[in-house]
Amino acid sequence: MLVKEYRICMPLTTEEYRVGQLYTISKHSHQESEKGEGVEVVKNEPHEDPVHGSGQFTEKRVHLSSKLPSWARAVTPRIFYITEKAWNYYPYTITGETRARGRGRTALRGQPCPGLTSPSFPPRCHPVMPACRGVPAEYTCSFLPKFSIYIETKYEDNCGDSENIFRSDKILGDHEVSFLDIAFDEIPERYYRSLEDPRFFSSAKTGRGPLREGWRQHTKPIMCSYKLVTVKFEVWGLQTRVEQFVHKVIRDILLIGHRQAFTWVDEWCDVSPGELCAFETQLQAAASPKLG
């Protein structure tokens, strides 16, 4: 099991990012679906929690076949996706169950795999996050190695200086804390877009940007996404390699997604909740036939 905490600062308020996050996820997913991959929304419905209050439950299929490295494609089905279940009680969210599924023939056995499910992360709950209770560990096919991703997220209006925000020391022990800089940390070259580079972007509507060296120390407003990410792959000989690879992918996704949320700010800063809902529904409807 490999646990890392990522802290990603943004020149936004948490209230602004609430809209920006939803807009960015919808637009990015639509762009990926144009390539035959991306995120397929299975469920998106209100959810009430006795502690966290009103929130939103989503179940998504993240199609990944072409994004796997060659060594992973050799042992996974031809059509591969991850099922994600998440509970959003903004500014606190839980991604409490991640399953990998596939269809097609595999290199290991050459047998049809109509549906593969790995276990979710064991439902041992943080004392302040009862909403993840009852998330089952499910085993339906012994072929797929034991794999899970668990992400706990909190958003705060600060520059990433809140320590032990997840109260995780007694549960998870020491873990690496990594600050991700949306302006100056490198992303894979194939994902680079000059229009999405915070070093050069200037918002016409908000007047924010471009971001200069040391921007986190003097930029106002500023917020931080704190993400505690646990990756688990219990297969001897592959565990370290797979867990490190998955964290690398997650790091890239976090950087790219937060860069886009900021550099697309002029597209979403004036969007009302009703317009955002209609936008999400429209893009989800357009993506489903391409990913089904």
TrEMBL record:
Residues 1-96, 130-284 form the Phosphatidylinositol transfer protein N-terminal domain. It comes from the Eukaryota. It holds the Pfam family IP_trans. Gene3D superfamilies: 3.30.530.20. One of its GO terms (molecular function) is phosphatidylinositol binding. GO terms for cellular component: cytoplasm. InterPro entries: PI_transfer, PI_transfer_N, START-like_dom_sf. This is Phosphatidylinositol transfer protein N-terminal domain-containing protein. It comes from Anser cygnoides (Swan goose).
